[in-house]
């Protein structure tokens, strides 16, 4: 059996195994987070039929391999489609949504990689000039897909931590060597790091990070940047790849995930992170993560 066909079969098997361990929105929608973590990287498998991801972003890199169906999404101003065997690649803070492209839905295996982890995989000792950002959101690379599946299998094998780390490190280095670049999305802004415009917009970003717990208004950001309200959103989006409200939501969800793992109550987390109420929090969380806050916490707590 071809490795990619095997991945699709494994994803379907995972759905059955996860049915009792993971609450799902419908019989055909499921998400399963692995109990193991390698070098800060979280592994998940999922299949979606009815669920639609709202436009959102993450503070981490997302490296996914479509295993079944067609995964359709908007990113970078265009509509993209991931077929079985295609990599789906999102940079940190890169806005995207997601929905099925065919009636049977779509499945994928995804790795959520912290920025620090990705940067630590730069192969400087070998003299390789690796990129830091993905060039495009959809890539077909059959050889790299097989390497990805081997790394994922090793990551999930108890007692094989070193092997899993080695294969994962080798995969990331090859991925960025083949499909990475130095200036993409946020990287373009960094190339102009001395400009007054960037300094102003960075002030808005810092303001959002410091006031994520409040219902921030655009007038506040305009004051921070000394830009007009109409120009602010366009400039922020061009600089950082996402509009202010999407970036703010990612900051809120990052804090929320930490608080959930600390055992705080959902209602308390919702209010502490700037959401109007628990219902609002749940909608935004599921719109970005694919599962409710309670479901996500239940799965993450099974980690050893």
Topology, please?
Blueprint: H1 3-21, E1 30-38, E2 41-48, E3 53-56, E4 61-69, E5 71-75, E6 78-82, E7 86-90, E8 96-100, E9 106-113, H2 115-120, E10 133-134, E11 138-140, H3 142-155, H4 161-179, E12 180-181, H5 186-190, H6 196-210, H7 218-225, H8 229-240, H9 244-261, H10 266-272, H11 278-289, H12 293-300
Antiparallel strand pairs: 1-2, 2-9, 3-8, 4-7, 4-9, 5-6, 5-8, 7-11, 10-12
Helix pairs in contact: 3-4, 6-7, 6-9, 10-11
Characterize the structure shown.
- With 304 residues, the chain is an alpha+beta fold.
- The chain has two domains: 3-181, Jelly Rolls (Sandwich), CATH 2.60.120; 186-300, Arc Repressor Mutant, subunit A (Orthogonal Bundle).
- It is 47% helix and 21% strand.
- It has helices at 3-21, 115-120, 142-155, 161-179, 186-190, 196-210, 218-225, 229-240, 244-261, 266-272, 278-289, 293-300, and strands at 30-38, 41-48, 53-56, 61-69, 71-75, 78-82, 86-90, 96-100, 106-113, 133-134, 138-140, 180-181.
- The strands form three sheets. A six-stranded antiparallel sheet has the order 1-2-9-4-7-11. The protein has a four-stranded antiparallel sheet with strand order 3-8-5-6. Strands 10-12 form a two-stranded antiparallel ribbon.
- A hairpin with a 2-residue loop joins strand 5 and strand 6 (78-82).
- Helix 3 packs antiparallel against helix 4 (161-179), helix 6 (196-210) runs parallel beside helix 9 and helix 10 (266-272) packs across helix 11.
- The radius of gyration is 19 Å and the shape is globular.
- The two termini are 32 Å apart.
